[in-house]
Fold these 3 entries.
Entry 1:
Amino acid sequence: MLHNSRPPQPQSAGFSFENTRRNAVLEGNLSELGYSSPKARKTGTTIAGIVFKDGVILGADTRATDDMVVADKNCMKIHYIAPNIYCCGAGVAADAEVTTQMMSSNVELHSLSTGRPPLVVMVTRQLKQMLFRYQGHIGSSLIVGGVDVTGAHLYSVYPHGSYDKLPFLTMGSGAGAAISIFEDRYQNMHAIVQHSHYDNSTPESVEYACIIVLTPACPELLPRATTELPRVTKLLCYITRV
Protein backbone atom coordinates (compact mmCIF):
# COMPACT_ATOMS: atom_id res chain seq x y z
CA MET A 1 0.00 0.00 0.00
CA LEU A 2 1.39 3.35 -1.06
CA HIS A 3 1.60 6.20 1.40
CA ASN A 4 0.49 9.70 0.48
CA SER A 5 3.70 11.24 1.80
CA ARG A 6 5.49 13.61 -0.54
CA PRO A 7 8.92 12.63 -1.81
CA PRO A 8 11.82 14.52 -0.27
CA GLN A 9 12.63 17.72 -2.08
CA PRO A 10 16.17 17.97 -3.44
CA GLN A 11 18.28 20.57 -1.72
CA SER A 12 19.59 23.35 -3.89
CA ALA A 13 23.35 23.69 -4.06
CA GLY A 14 25.41 26.85 -4.00
CA PHE A 15 24.83 30.10 -2.13
CA SER A 16 21.48 31.17 -0.74
CA PHE A 17 20.38 34.76 -1.35
CA GLU A 18 16.92 34.47 0.17
CA ASN A 19 17.68 37.15 2.78
CA THR A 20 18.90 39.72 0.28
CA ARG A 21 15.51 41.39 -0.11
CA ARG A 22 14.97 41.38 3.65
CA ASN A 23 18.31 43.10 4.21
CA ALA A 24 17.54 45.69 1.54
CA VAL A 25 14.18 46.51 3.14
CA LEU A 26 15.72 46.81 6.59
CA GLU A 27 18.51 49.02 5.31
CA GLY A 28 15.99 51.25 3.53
CA ASN A 29 13.87 51.62 6.65
CA LEU A 30 16.91 52.43 8.76
CA SER A 31 18.15 55.04 6.29
CA GLU A 32 14.77 56.79 6.38
CA LEU A 33 15.11 57.09 10.16
CA GLY A 34 18.64 58.42 9.90
CA TYR A 35 20.42 55.24 10.94
CA SER A 36 22.75 52.90 9.12
CA SER A 37 22.84 49.12 9.23
CA PRO A 38 25.64 47.61 11.33
CA LYS A 39 28.69 46.42 9.46
CA ALA A 40 30.25 42.99 9.83
CA ARG A 41 33.01 43.11 12.41
CA LYS A 42 36.39 42.00 11.09
CA THR A 43 38.32 40.33 13.86
CA GLY A 44 41.88 39.15 14.00
CA THR A 45 43.81 37.94 17.02
CA THR A 46 44.62 38.65 20.64
CA ILE A 47 48.01 38.91 22.31
CA ALA A 48 48.78 39.59 25.95
CA GLY A 49 51.71 40.05 28.29
CA ILE A 50 52.28 40.52 32.00
CA VAL A 51 55.24 41.25 34.26
CA PHE A 52 55.75 39.17 37.39
CA LYS A 53 58.44 39.16 40.05
CA ASP A 54 60.76 36.80 38.17
CA GLY A 55 60.28 37.93 34.57
CA VAL A 56 57.71 38.37 31.82
CA ILE A 57 54.95 36.12 30.49
CA LEU A 58 53.78 36.49 26.90
CA GLY A 59 50.71 34.76 25.49
CA ALA A 60 49.01 34.59 22.11
CA ASP A 61 46.53 32.44 20.25
CA THR A 62 47.59 30.58 17.12
CA ARG A 63 44.69 31.31 14.79
CA ALA A 64 45.26 33.50 11.72
CA THR A 65 42.20 34.87 9.93
CA ASP A 66 41.56 36.34 6.50
CA ASP A 67 38.55 38.60 6.98
CA MET A 68 35.96 36.15 8.38
CA VAL A 69 37.79 33.00 7.24
CA VAL A 70 40.23 31.06 9.43
CA ALA A 71 43.32 30.81 7.22
CA ASP A 72 45.66 29.02 9.64
CA LYS A 73 44.97 27.40 13.01
CA ASN A 74 48.64 27.01 13.92
CA CYS A 75 50.19 30.40 13.28
CA MET A 76 53.04 31.18 15.66
CA LYS A 77 52.51 34.74 16.88
CA ILE A 78 55.31 34.87 19.47
CA HIS A 79 58.44 35.81 17.53
CA TYR A 80 62.07 35.45 18.54
CA ILE A 81 64.09 38.66 18.83
CA ALA A 82 66.96 37.62 21.10
CA PRO A 83 67.54 34.88 23.67
CA ASN A 84 66.15 37.18 26.37
CA ILE A 85 63.59 39.10 24.28
CA TYR A 86 60.48 37.92 22.44
CA CYS A 87 57.73 39.78 20.64
CA CYS A 88 54.01 39.06 20.11
CA GLY A 89 52.47 40.28 16.87
CA ALA A 90 48.88 41.14 15.99
CA GLY A 91 47.48 42.58 12.79
CA VAL A 92 48.78 41.50 9.39
CA ALA A 93 50.62 38.23 9.95
CA ALA A 94 53.10 38.80 7.12
CA ASP A 95 53.98 42.30 8.34
CA ALA A 96 54.53 41.08 11.89
CA GLU A 97 56.67 38.16 10.70
CA VAL A 98 58.94 40.24 8.46
CA THR A 99 59.19 43.09 10.96
CA THR A 100 60.31 40.81 13.78
CA GLN A 101 62.74 38.95 11.51
CA MET A 102 64.38 42.21 10.49
CA MET A 103 64.55 43.33 14.11
CA SER A 104 66.06 40.02 15.18
CA SER A 105 68.80 40.42 12.56
CA ASN A 106 69.50 44.02 13.62
CA VAL A 107 69.68 43.02 17.28
CA GLU A 108 72.09 40.19 16.50
CA LEU A 109 74.37 42.56 14.56
CA HIS A 110 74.18 45.07 17.42
CA SER A 111 75.16 42.41 19.95
CA LEU A 112 78.11 41.29 17.81
CA SER A 113 79.24 44.89 17.39
CA THR A 114 78.99 45.92 21.04
CA GLY A 115 79.71 42.58 22.68
CA ARG A 116 76.77 43.08 25.04
CA PRO A 117 73.33 41.46 25.28
CA PRO A 118 70.52 43.65 23.92
CA LEU A 119 68.26 45.74 26.11
CA VAL A 120 64.48 45.59 25.81
CA VAL A 121 64.23 49.38 25.56
CA MET A 122 66.68 49.37 22.64
CA VAL A 123 64.56 46.86 20.71
CA THR A 124 61.42 48.88 21.42
CA ARG A 125 63.05 52.10 20.26
CA GLN A 126 64.16 50.58 16.96
CA LEU A 127 60.71 49.07 16.37
CA LYS A 128 58.83 52.31 17.00
CA GLN A 129 61.24 54.32 14.85
CA MET A 130 60.86 51.89 11.95
CA LEU A 131 57.05 51.78 12.19
CA PHE A 132 56.85 55.57 12.49
CA ARG A 133 58.66 55.98 9.18
CA TYR A 134 55.91 54.05 7.40
CA GLN A 135 53.07 55.98 9.10
CA GLY A 136 50.93 52.92 9.86
CA HIS A 137 51.21 51.23 6.46
CA ILE A 138 52.89 48.28 8.22
CA GLY A 139 49.97 46.66 10.00
CA SER A 140 51.81 45.30 13.02
CA SER A 141 50.73 45.77 16.62
CA LEU A 142 53.51 44.40 18.80
CA ILE A 143 54.08 43.52 22.44
CA VAL A 144 57.77 43.38 23.31
CA GLY A 145 58.74 41.55 26.48
CA GLY A 146 62.06 40.53 27.90
CA VAL A 147 64.52 40.45 30.76
CA ASP A 148 67.87 42.25 30.69
CA VAL A 149 70.40 43.61 33.18
CA THR A 150 67.96 46.33 34.23
CA GLY A 151 65.10 43.93 35.00
CA ALA A 152 61.90 42.73 33.35
CA HIS A 153 60.18 45.03 30.86
CA LEU A 154 57.00 44.96 28.80
CA TYR A 155 56.22 47.39 25.97
CA SER A 156 53.47 47.76 23.40
CA VAL A 157 54.28 49.26 20.00
CA TYR A 158 51.47 50.45 17.73
CA PRO A 159 51.55 50.53 13.90
CA HIS A 160 51.97 54.32 13.80
CA GLY A 161 55.02 54.26 16.08
CA SER A 162 53.61 55.10 19.50
CA TYR A 163 54.42 52.88 22.46
CA ASP A 164 53.49 52.22 26.10
CA LYS A 165 55.19 50.58 29.05
CA LEU A 166 52.84 48.88 31.49
CA PRO A 167 52.86 45.92 33.91
CA PHE A 168 50.28 44.12 31.74
CA LEU A 169 49.21 44.66 28.14
CA THR A 170 46.74 43.31 25.62
CA MET A 171 46.39 44.02 21.91
CA GLY A 172 44.27 42.71 19.07
CA SER A 173 40.57 42.21 18.49
CA GLY A 174 39.97 40.56 21.87
CA ALA A 175 42.04 43.08 23.83
CA GLY A 176 38.99 44.61 25.48
CA ALA A 177 37.90 41.36 27.09
CA ALA A 178 41.46 40.40 28.02
CA ILE A 179 42.34 43.73 29.65
CA SER A 180 39.18 43.59 31.75
CA ILE A 181 40.30 40.26 33.17
CA PHE A 182 43.79 41.62 33.82
CA GLU A 183 42.44 44.65 35.65
CA ASP A 184 40.04 42.57 37.71
CA ARG A 185 42.31 39.60 38.46
CA TYR A 186 45.88 40.78 38.13
CA GLN A 187 47.16 37.85 40.19
CA ASN A 188 45.47 35.20 38.03
CA MET A 189 46.57 34.35 34.50
CA HIS A 190 43.11 33.84 33.02
CA ALA A 191 43.09 36.71 30.55
CA ILE A 192 45.26 34.95 27.97
CA VAL A 193 42.48 32.40 27.60
CA GLN A 194 39.42 34.45 28.54
CA HIS A 195 39.60 36.65 25.44
CA SER A 196 38.65 33.68 23.25
CA HIS A 197 35.11 33.63 24.64
CA TYR A 198 34.44 37.16 23.39
CA ASP A 199 36.23 37.06 20.03
CA ASN A 200 35.01 34.84 17.20
CA SER A 201 38.42 34.72 15.51
CA THR A 202 40.35 33.43 18.50
CA PRO A 203 40.09 29.89 19.82
CA GLU A 204 37.74 28.70 22.54
CA SER A 205 40.33 26.46 24.17
CA VAL A 206 43.78 26.91 25.66
CA GLU A 207 44.83 24.15 23.28
CA TYR A 208 45.43 26.73 20.57
CA ALA A 209 47.27 29.24 22.79
CA CYS A 210 51.02 29.64 23.06
CA ILE A 211 52.59 30.95 26.27
CA ILE A 212 56.24 31.78 26.85
CA VAL A 213 57.86 32.68 30.19
CA LEU A 214 60.97 34.88 30.10
CA THR A 215 63.20 34.77 33.18
CA PRO A 216 66.83 35.74 33.78
CA ALA A 217 67.77 32.05 33.51
CA CYS A 218 66.26 31.14 30.14
CA PRO A 219 63.01 31.44 28.17
CA GLU A 220 60.56 28.59 28.66
CA LEU A 221 57.89 27.75 26.12
CA LEU A 222 55.01 26.16 27.98
CA PRO A 223 53.25 23.17 26.42
CA ARG A 224 49.80 23.76 25.06
CA ALA A 225 47.10 23.05 27.57
CA THR A 226 43.75 21.48 26.82
CA THR A 227 41.61 22.93 29.58
CA GLU A 228 38.59 24.91 28.47
CA LEU A 229 37.02 27.67 30.52
CA PRO A 230 33.23 27.56 30.91
CA ARG A 231 31.32 30.28 29.15
CA VAL A 232 29.85 32.89 31.43
CA THR A 233 26.08 33.37 31.20
CA LYS A 234 25.27 37.07 31.11
CA LEU A 235 22.31 37.94 33.29
CA LEU A 236 22.09 41.60 32.32
CA CYS A 237 21.15 43.05 28.97
CA TYR A 238 22.81 46.04 27.36
CA ILE A 239 20.56 48.95 26.42
CA THR A 240 21.84 51.47 23.90
CA ARG A 241 20.38 54.92 24.25
CA VAL A 242 20.36 57.28 21.30
Note: The chain has one domain: 46-221.
Entry 2:
Amino acid sequence: MHRFALSLVLAVLIGLGARSASATELDGYWMDSDGEVVLEVGNCGAAMCAKVVWLRLPYGPDRLPLKDFRNPEASLQNRQVCGLNVITGFTKQPDGTWGGGNVYVPDLGMSFSGYAEVLSPTQIKVRGYVFLPLFGATEVWSRVAAPAYHCERDGVPPAPERAGQ
Protein backbone atom coordinates (compact mmCIF):
# COMPACT_ATOMS: atom_id res chain seq x y z
CA MET A 1 0.00 0.00 0.00
CA HIS A 2 2.90 2.37 0.72
CA ARG A 3 4.31 1.70 -2.76
CA PHE A 4 0.93 2.78 -4.15
CA ALA A 5 1.09 5.88 -1.94
CA LEU A 6 4.53 6.81 -3.25
CA SER A 7 3.36 6.11 -6.79
CA LEU A 8 0.36 8.36 -6.31
CA VAL A 9 2.48 11.14 -4.77
CA LEU A 10 4.79 11.04 -7.73
CA ALA A 11 2.04 10.48 -10.25
CA VAL A 12 0.16 13.54 -9.21
CA LEU A 13 3.24 15.67 -9.59
CA ILE A 14 3.61 15.00 -13.31
CA GLY A 15 1.20 17.58 -14.64
CA LEU A 16 2.64 20.61 -12.97
CA GLY A 17 2.26 23.61 -15.19
CA ALA A 18 0.96 27.12 -15.70
CA ARG A 19 -2.22 27.11 -17.72
CA SER A 20 -3.99 29.45 -19.98
CA ALA A 21 -6.82 28.52 -22.29
CA SER A 22 -4.25 26.88 -24.56
CA ALA A 23 -2.70 23.45 -24.07
CA THR A 24 0.75 22.95 -22.58
CA GLU A 25 3.35 20.24 -23.05
CA LEU A 26 1.93 18.51 -19.97
CA ASP A 27 -1.71 18.21 -21.02
CA GLY A 28 -2.83 14.63 -21.45
CA TYR A 29 -2.41 11.30 -19.69
CA TRP A 30 0.61 10.16 -17.65
CA MET A 31 1.44 6.84 -15.98
CA ASP A 32 3.80 6.14 -13.10
CA SER A 33 6.81 3.88 -13.66
CA ASP A 34 5.10 0.93 -11.92
CA GLY A 35 1.89 1.10 -13.96
CA GLU A 36 -0.26 1.77 -10.88
CA VAL A 37 -1.89 5.14 -11.69
CA VAL A 38 -2.90 7.23 -14.72
CA LEU A 39 -3.66 10.94 -14.29
CA GLU A 40 -5.34 13.35 -16.67
CA VAL A 41 -3.64 16.74 -16.63
CA GLY A 42 -5.42 19.87 -17.84
CA ASN A 43 -6.53 23.45 -17.19
CA CYS A 44 -8.17 24.58 -13.97
CA GLY A 45 -8.40 28.33 -14.39
CA ALA A 46 -5.01 30.09 -14.29
CA ALA A 47 -3.20 27.03 -12.95
CA MET A 48 -3.21 23.33 -13.77
CA CYS A 49 -4.89 20.41 -12.15
CA ALA A 50 -4.68 16.65 -12.42
CA LYS A 51 -7.15 13.95 -11.54
CA VAL A 52 -6.95 10.20 -11.15
CA VAL A 53 -8.60 8.54 -14.16
CA TRP A 54 -7.29 4.98 -13.87
CA LEU A 55 -5.98 2.76 -11.07
CA ARG A 56 -4.54 -0.70 -11.58
CA LEU A 57 -6.31 -1.74 -8.34
CA PRO A 58 -9.43 0.46 -8.04
CA TYR A 59 -10.94 -1.50 -5.13
CA GLY A 60 -10.37 -1.55 -1.41
CA PRO A 61 -10.14 -4.74 0.67
CA ASP A 62 -13.95 -4.70 0.94
CA ARG A 63 -14.11 -5.08 -2.90
CA LEU A 64 -15.84 -1.68 -3.16
CA PRO A 65 -14.41 1.29 -5.08
CA LEU A 66 -11.34 2.68 -3.30
CA LYS A 67 -12.34 5.58 -1.02
CA ASP A 68 -10.43 8.54 0.42
CA PHE A 69 -10.81 7.03 3.91
CA ARG A 70 -7.57 8.53 5.28
CA ASN A 71 -8.63 12.11 4.56
CA PRO A 72 -8.31 14.19 7.75
CA GLU A 73 -11.70 15.79 6.96
CA ALA A 74 -14.35 13.26 7.94
CA SER A 75 -16.83 14.72 5.45
CA LEU A 76 -14.48 13.80 2.55
CA GLN A 77 -13.61 10.25 3.60
CA ASN A 78 -16.36 8.61 1.54
CA ARG A 79 -15.39 10.08 -1.85
CA GLN A 80 -13.93 7.74 -4.47
CA VAL A 81 -10.23 7.97 -5.37
CA CYS A 82 -10.99 7.41 -9.07
CA GLY A 83 -11.97 10.81 -10.46
CA LEU A 84 -10.42 12.68 -7.53
CA ASN A 85 -8.63 15.96 -8.32
CA VAL A 86 -5.24 15.48 -6.64
CA ILE A 87 -3.12 18.39 -7.97
CA THR A 88 -4.04 22.06 -7.72
CA GLY A 89 -2.28 25.37 -8.19
CA PHE A 90 0.89 24.40 -10.07
CA THR A 91 2.49 26.99 -12.35
CA LYS A 92 5.65 27.36 -14.42
CA GLN A 93 8.54 28.37 -12.15
CA PRO A 94 11.41 30.75 -13.08
CA ASP A 95 13.88 27.84 -13.25
CA GLY A 96 11.76 26.08 -15.90
CA THR A 97 10.34 23.45 -13.56
CA TRP A 98 6.67 23.26 -12.60
CA GLY A 99 5.45 23.61 -9.03
CA GLY A 100 4.09 25.97 -6.40
CA GLY A 101 0.84 24.16 -5.64
CA ASN A 102 -0.50 21.24 -3.67
CA VAL A 103 -0.53 17.50 -4.25
CA TYR A 104 -3.02 15.44 -2.28
CA VAL A 105 -2.27 11.71 -1.79
CA PRO A 106 -5.45 9.84 -0.82
CA ASP A 107 -3.58 6.72 0.29
CA LEU A 108 -1.85 8.79 2.97
CA GLY A 109 -4.52 11.44 3.56
CA MET A 110 -1.78 14.07 3.19
CA SER A 111 -0.77 16.94 0.94
CA PHE A 112 2.77 17.44 -0.36
CA SER A 113 4.92 19.93 -2.24
CA GLY A 114 6.71 18.96 -5.41
CA TYR A 115 8.12 19.88 -8.76
CA ALA A 116 8.52 18.38 -12.21
CA GLU A 117 10.98 18.74 -15.04
CA VAL A 118 10.14 17.85 -18.64
CA LEU A 119 12.78 15.47 -20.03
CA SER A 120 11.14 14.92 -23.42
CA PRO A 121 7.65 15.06 -24.95
CA THR A 122 7.04 11.57 -23.54
CA GLN A 123 8.87 11.65 -20.20
CA ILE A 124 8.92 13.80 -17.13
CA LYS A 125 11.05 13.63 -13.99
CA VAL A 126 9.01 14.26 -10.85
CA ARG A 127 9.97 14.81 -7.24
CA GLY A 128 7.62 14.83 -4.28
CA TYR A 129 8.76 16.05 -0.88
CA VAL A 130 7.91 17.16 2.63
CA PHE A 131 9.37 20.48 3.85
CA LEU A 132 12.51 20.49 1.64
CA PRO A 133 13.22 18.82 -1.72
CA LEU A 134 16.03 16.99 0.08
CA PHE A 135 13.37 14.90 1.87
CA GLY A 136 11.58 13.20 -0.99
CA ALA A 137 11.67 10.79 -3.90
CA THR A 138 12.16 11.12 -7.67
CA GLU A 139 10.77 9.02 -10.52
CA VAL A 140 10.43 9.27 -14.29
CA TRP A 141 6.88 9.10 -15.68
CA SER A 142 5.66 8.33 -19.19
CA ARG A 143 2.99 9.83 -21.39
CA VAL A 144 0.31 7.30 -22.33
CA ALA A 145 -2.74 7.19 -24.56
CA ALA A 146 -6.10 7.78 -22.95
CA PRO A 147 -6.97 4.63 -21.02
CA ALA A 148 -9.74 2.49 -22.50
CA TYR A 149 -11.33 2.47 -19.05
CA HIS A 150 -11.68 5.98 -17.60
CA CYS A 151 -13.15 5.98 -14.10
CA GLU A 152 -14.60 9.48 -14.31
CA ARG A 153 -16.37 8.67 -17.57
CA ASP A 154 -17.16 5.00 -16.93
CA GLY A 155 -17.38 4.77 -13.14
CA VAL A 156 -15.61 2.05 -11.20
CA PRO A 157 -16.92 -1.32 -12.37
CA PRO A 158 -18.06 -3.88 -9.81
CA ALA A 159 -15.23 -5.95 -8.36
CA PRO A 160 -14.90 -9.40 -9.90
CA GLU A 161 -16.34 -12.25 -7.87
CA ARG A 162 -13.89 -14.17 -5.75
CA ALA A 163 -13.31 -17.80 -6.64
CA GLY A 164 -15.74 -20.11 -4.85
CA GLN A 165 -18.50 -17.50 -4.37
Note: The two ends are 26 Å apart (CA to CA).
Entry 3:
Amino acid sequence: MKRAGGWYTFSFHVQHSPGVQPADVEEVVEKGVQILVIGRGMSEALKVPPSTVEYLKKKGIDVRVLQTEMAVKEYNALVTQGIRVGGVFHSTC
Protein backbone atom coordinates (compact mmCIF):
# COMPACT_ATOMS: atom_id res chain seq x y z
CA MET A 1 0.00 0.00 0.00
CA LYS A 2 1.33 3.45 -0.81
CA ARG A 3 0.15 6.91 0.10
CA ALA A 4 -0.72 9.20 -2.81
CA GLY A 5 -1.78 12.66 -1.69
CA GLY A 6 -4.52 12.10 0.89
CA TRP A 7 -5.23 8.59 -0.38
CA TYR A 8 -3.84 5.20 0.46
CA THR A 9 -3.78 3.16 -2.71
CA PHE A 10 -3.10 -0.46 -3.40
CA SER A 11 -3.97 -2.92 -6.07
CA PHE A 12 -4.42 -6.64 -6.08
CA HIS A 13 -5.42 -9.26 -8.59
CA VAL A 14 -8.68 -11.06 -7.94
CA GLN A 15 -10.47 -13.56 -10.15
CA HIS A 16 -14.18 -12.91 -10.78
CA SER A 17 -14.79 -16.17 -8.98
CA PRO A 18 -14.14 -16.86 -6.12
CA GLY A 19 -13.97 -13.06 -5.94
CA VAL A 20 -12.97 -10.78 -3.07
CA GLN A 21 -11.75 -12.89 -0.15
CA PRO A 22 -11.19 -11.76 3.46
CA ALA A 23 -7.41 -11.73 2.93
CA ASP A 24 -7.88 -9.30 0.03
CA VAL A 25 -9.36 -6.60 2.27
CA GLU A 26 -7.12 -6.94 5.34
CA GLU A 27 -5.07 -3.83 4.49
CA VAL A 28 -8.22 -1.74 4.24
CA VAL A 29 -9.49 -3.15 7.55
CA GLU A 30 -6.20 -2.20 9.24
CA LYS A 31 -6.79 1.46 8.29
CA GLY A 32 -9.77 1.62 10.64
CA VAL A 33 -12.57 2.25 8.17
CA GLN A 34 -16.17 2.37 9.37
CA ILE A 35 -17.64 1.41 6.01
CA LEU A 36 -16.17 -0.51 3.10
CA VAL A 37 -17.74 0.04 -0.31
CA ILE A 38 -17.07 -2.75 -2.80
CA GLY A 39 -17.70 -2.17 -6.50
CA ARG A 40 -18.36 -5.44 -8.36
CA GLY A 41 -17.68 -4.09 -11.85
CA MET A 42 -19.84 -2.38 -14.43
CA SER A 43 -21.76 -5.60 -15.12
CA GLU A 44 -21.24 -6.98 -11.58
CA ALA A 45 -19.02 -9.88 -12.63
CA LEU A 46 -16.85 -9.77 -9.50
CA LYS A 47 -18.12 -12.03 -6.73
CA VAL A 48 -18.16 -11.01 -3.07
CA PRO A 49 -18.83 -14.19 -1.09
CA PRO A 50 -20.78 -14.17 2.17
CA SER A 51 -17.60 -15.15 4.04
CA THR A 52 -16.02 -11.81 3.10
CA VAL A 53 -19.06 -9.82 4.18
CA GLU A 54 -19.23 -11.78 7.46
CA TYR A 55 -15.50 -11.20 8.09
CA LEU A 56 -15.94 -7.45 7.68
CA LYS A 57 -19.05 -7.33 9.87
CA LYS A 58 -17.23 -9.23 12.64
CA LYS A 59 -14.58 -6.49 12.47
CA GLY A 60 -17.34 -3.91 13.02
CA ILE A 61 -17.27 -2.65 9.44
CA ASP A 62 -20.45 -1.90 7.50
CA VAL A 63 -20.24 -3.29 3.96
CA ARG A 64 -21.87 -1.91 0.83
CA VAL A 65 -21.61 -4.18 -2.23
CA LEU A 66 -22.75 -2.41 -5.39
CA GLN A 67 -22.29 -2.11 -9.13
CA THR A 68 -19.11 -0.05 -9.58
CA GLU A 69 -20.70 3.16 -10.85
CA MET A 70 -23.12 3.16 -7.90
CA ALA A 71 -20.30 2.18 -5.54
CA VAL A 72 -18.24 5.22 -6.56
CA LYS A 73 -21.24 7.50 -5.97
CA GLU A 74 -21.84 5.90 -2.56
CA TYR A 75 -18.16 6.21 -1.64
CA ASN A 76 -18.08 9.90 -2.59
CA ALA A 77 -21.26 10.62 -0.63
CA LEU A 78 -19.84 8.95 2.48
CA VAL A 79 -16.54 10.83 2.20
CA THR A 80 -18.49 14.09 1.95
CA GLN A 81 -20.22 13.17 5.22
CA GLY A 82 -16.85 12.78 6.93
CA ILE A 83 -17.18 9.03 7.41
CA ARG A 84 -14.03 6.89 7.47
CA VAL A 85 -14.73 4.90 4.34
CA GLY A 86 -12.66 2.53 2.26
CA GLY A 87 -13.31 1.41 -1.26
CA VAL A 88 -12.48 -1.62 -3.35
CA PHE A 89 -13.48 -1.07 -6.97
CA HIS A 90 -13.42 -3.50 -9.88
CA SER A 91 -13.19 -1.08 -12.76
CA THR A 92 -14.09 -3.26 -15.71
CA CYS A 93 -16.63 -6.05 -16.17
Note: Residues 18-64+85-93 form a domain with the Hypothetical Protein Mth938; Chain: A, fold (CATH 3.40.1230.10).
